[in-house]
Amino acid sequence: MLDAIAQALIEHNYLFMASALVAGLVVGSFLNVVIYRLPPILQYGWRKDCAELNEQPFKQKAPPGIAFERSHCPHCQKQLPAWQNIPVFSYLFLRGRCYYCRKPIAFRYPLVESLTGILTGFLAYHFGLGWPFLAASVLVFFLIVIAFIDLDTFLIPDQLSLSLLWLGLFFSLFEVFVTPEQAIIGALAGYLCLWLLFHVFKLLTGKEGMGYGDFKLLAAGGAWLGAEMLIMVLILASVSGLVFAIMQKILKKEEVRIPFGPYLSLGIFLCLIYGNTLLNWYLPV
């Protein structure tokens, strides 16, 4: 049965792309939960550990978990039935408002679902059915969560960046994108280059230009793509971040803090798909 389904998906690429898009929409709904709930869970754990370390009472209520807690409206706290959790379509059907309290539903939710679905469908088109598609999809899911959490909190959780790094090393064992040697060197180079840049910038200006989470994210990118591709990741991340900063400055006319994680995530994704083309264009042999 499974062999027949796989054969049908291989023979009918558009069917595979459509299936990947739908699966991506469903995964995107779960990614919204992770983006929304993981930071409070981490903060709760840090506060609890701090209280225990200082031998102080800790009575804060634990936030909802990621896997088993039912979805609810953040305004009226009503639990949402399954039909209100259909990716994108529920938002359109409800016209962007809670069914119970009529408060607006954040546009972030259908945005993440749509982005995940479209990118998963694109990966199906680009790679076809096989290990590269599966590995690339896992990478993209992590990058989406990292980017949006960093936008919200200026924090890249180690649970995400380090897991992504280890997954990159794992997939390198099968040489999906790079060899194990390239992955290890890429991880080391990714961490060290931003670590050195951070300390040089701090020495010259007395300010911290980025966080350690960015070092770990670039190390994860190196584990997936190899050290050679990191120069393009940094160029793409820097250029896109600079363009967005200029646009924000023009529109808001005030100093704004800009997280680097979303732009690193964009650079890693683009290099996964177009890295060799971009590298050959930038550094022609």
TrEMBL record:
EC numbers on record: 2.1.1.-, 3.4.23.43
GO biological-process terms attached to the record: methylation; signal peptide processing
Sequence intervals crossing the membrane: 14-38, 131-149, 161-178, 184-205, 217-243, 263-283
Compartments, as annotated in UniProt: Cell inner membrane; Cell membrane
Domain (Prepilin peptidase A24 N-terminal) ranges: 22-127
Domain Prepilin type IV endopeptidase peptidase: 138-246
Pfam families associated with the record: A24_N_bact, Peptidase_A24
Gene3D superfamilies registered for this protein in UniProt: 1.20.120.1220
Catalysed reaction equations from the record: Typically cleaves a -Gly-|-Phe- bond to release an N-terminal, basic peptide of 5-8 residues from type IV prepilin, and then N-methylates the new N-terminal amino group, the methyl donor being S-adenosyl-L-methionine
Gene Ontology molecular-function annotations: aspartic-type endopeptidase activity; methyltransferase activity
Keywords, alphabetical: Cell inner membrane, Cell membrane, Hydrolase, Membrane, Methyltransferase, Multifunctional enzyme, Protease, S-adenosyl-L-methionine, Transferase, Transmembrane, Transmembrane helix
A single GO cellular-component term on record: plasma membrane
Record bears the keyword Methyltransferase: yes
Topology class, membrane: Multi-pass membrane protein
Highest taxon of the lineage: Bacteria
The family this protein is said to belong to: Belongs to the peptidase A24 family.
Functional description taken from the UniProt entry: Plays an essential role in type IV pili and type II pseudopili formation by proteolytically removing the leader sequence from substrate proteins and subsequently monomethylating the alpha-amino group of the newly exposed N-terminal phenylalanine.
Name of the protein in question: Prepilin leader peptidase/N-methyltransferase
Organism the protein comes from: Marinicella pacifica
Taxonomic placement: Bacteria, Pseudomonadati, Pseudomonadota, Gammaproteobacteria, Lysobacterales
